[in-house]
Amino acid sequence: MKKLLERYTKEQVKKAKAIKAIFFDVDGVLTDGKIIYDGNGIEIKNFNVKDGQIISHLKKAGIYVGAISGRDSVVTANRAAELKLDFCHQGIVDKASVVEKLAKHYKLKDKEIAYVGDDIIDLAPFKIAGLSVCPADAFDYIKDKVDLVSKYKGGEGVVREVGDLVLAAKGELEKILKA
């Protein structure tokens, strides 16, 4: 785990160690941001199984995990149910107020929340979160506002990287790998 943590600054690891919840956007974070409609108007999105794989381990470690999306999507609801997320809020314009309500509901301090987003709608939650993260393919003005720019693009393992970092910082990833 030491090698994994060497990629990050001491401050990023310190912030990750305090995390008790990871909240994330969907389009552009769990997906590559593309939305495809077939000839019948059916929405199609690509999700990365690697992001999904870490979620069950985060939950077993007592970390709350959930999605806050600006769009309503049946596809997103289905993926959230499949992953057994603690929550999936969709059609959210004011994501910061949802983050604040969730913090109160789960009795979290701001420093205990990681927020992963990729666009302007995510700027306000970044200011609240103890650890803010964006994908590698976010616009530069988004990258300038976060604690960590993932080495992965949206839909290519951003949530997995954050999950691995948090679990490693807490000493939990090593236990998972030894099981």
Number of helices: 9
Q: Please give the largest β-sheet.
A: 6 strands, parallel
Strand content: 5-15%
The low-confidence parts are none
What is the highest CATH level, the class of the domain at 20-93 and 108-133? Alpha Beta
- In the CATH hierarchy, what is the superfamily of the domain at 20-93 and 108-133? HAD superfamily/HAD-like
Please report the total strand number as a whole number.
8
- Tell me the Rg in angstroms: 15 Å
**Percent range of helical residues:** 40-55%
CATH architecture of the domain at 20-93 and 108-133: 3-Layer(aba) Sandwich
- Mean pLDDT, as a whole number? 96
First and last CA, distance: 15 Å
Order of helices and strands: HHEEEHEHEHEHEHEHH
Kindly name the structural category: alpha/beta
Tertiary shape: globular
Describe this structure in words.
- The protein is an alpha/beta fold and 179 residues long.
- It has a domain at 20-93 and 108-133: Rossmann fold (3-Layer(aba) Sandwich).
- 41% of the residues lie in helices and 15% in strands.
- It contains 9 helices and 8 strands.
- It has helices at residues 2-5, 10-17, 49-60, 74-83, 95-105, 123-128, 140-143, 158-169, 172-178, and strands at residues 21-24, 36-37, 43-44, 64-68, 87-89, 113-116, 131-134, 148-149.
- A hairpin with a 5-residue loop joins strand 2 and strand 3 (43-44).
- Helix 2 crosses helix 8 (158-169).
